[in-house]
Amino acid sequence: MLAVLSPAKSLDLEPTDRALDFTQPALLDETLALMRTTRKLKPADLARLMSISDKLAELNYDRFQAFETPFTAANAKPAALMFAGDTYAGLKAPELDDDALRWAQDHLGILSGLYGLIRPLDLIQPYRLEMGTRLATRRGANLYSFWGDRITKRINAMTEAHADRTLVNLASNEYFKAVRPEHLAGGVVTAVFKEIKDGQPRMIGLTAKRARGMMARWIVAGRVDRREGLKDFAVDDYAFQPALSSDTDWVYTRAWRTAAGFV
């Protein structure tokens, strides 16, 4: 079983002192091909393409120009320890022990506009390139065209040795659109997190993002490797709701909390 997350715009760029065997992204050759396009863009192009401020455009222009391989612990950082933001506040990767992070290498992936699909200990350099960006390349008008079936093939390669090849979707719609479920070797389960208010289940973006990270952490910490095991997820008062679920969308709910009660 493999779970996939979205990346984050917020990054933690402080060096890590974790003594682990860091790895290289499997689709790095594709990343290098993409970089040949992004490096040609001026800050004004990036601001327009990404709908970001001039300041952020300058920052990301500088990052694209500074991009260099090979990735080392001196010029890059493992993905799970670099990404910050709501989902990664739930994942709390820096608090996972070394054995858990090693296990996560084969059971957790992060979808990425620049790197395709990366593992927790894959070294990456800071960037901003959302999967929905309409960046034209020789392969088409956007990043979905650029990645084509490459991410899906990589997922199949990662699950080849798994007894249960289910893909657990903990990503946003924008990122999961880069996966082609019909070509996966296993089925897909999408975890949906809702809050019950006035008797009705509601999706709240902030808490749903954090819950995705919490489920990813729970999977890794508990070495959950079968889809049926996902029904036991009961972190932070969430509970599986079979009556609200389908074969592919598994719904978890908890009682509504006021803003002060959000974790």
Write the layout of secondary structure elements.
Blueprint: E1 2-5, H1 28-38, H2 43-50, H3 54-66, E2 77-78, H4 79-82, H5 86-91, H6 98-104, E3 108-112, E4 116-118, E5 123-124, H7 143-147, H8 150-159, E6 167-170, H9 173-176, E7 188-197, E8 200-202, H10 205-222, E9 239-240, E10 249-255
Parallel strand pairs: 1-3, 1-6, 6-7, 7-10
Antiparallel strand pairs: 2-5, 3-4, 7-8, 9-10
Helix pairs in contact: 2-3
What does it look like?
The protein has 263 residues and is of the alpha/beta class. It is built from ten helices and ten strands. It has one domain (2-14, 77-261). Strand 9 (239-240) and strand 10 form a beta hairpin. The chain is globular. The two termini are 28 Å apart.
Short description:
The chain has ten helices and ten strands.
Q: Provide the residue-averaged pLDDT.
A: 96
Helix-strand string:
EHHHEHHHEEEHHEHEEHEE
The largest β sheet comes out as: 8 strands, mixed
Derived structural class = alpha/beta
Keywords:
single chain, 263 residues, alpha/beta, two-stranded antiparallel ribbon, 10 helices, 33% helix, globular
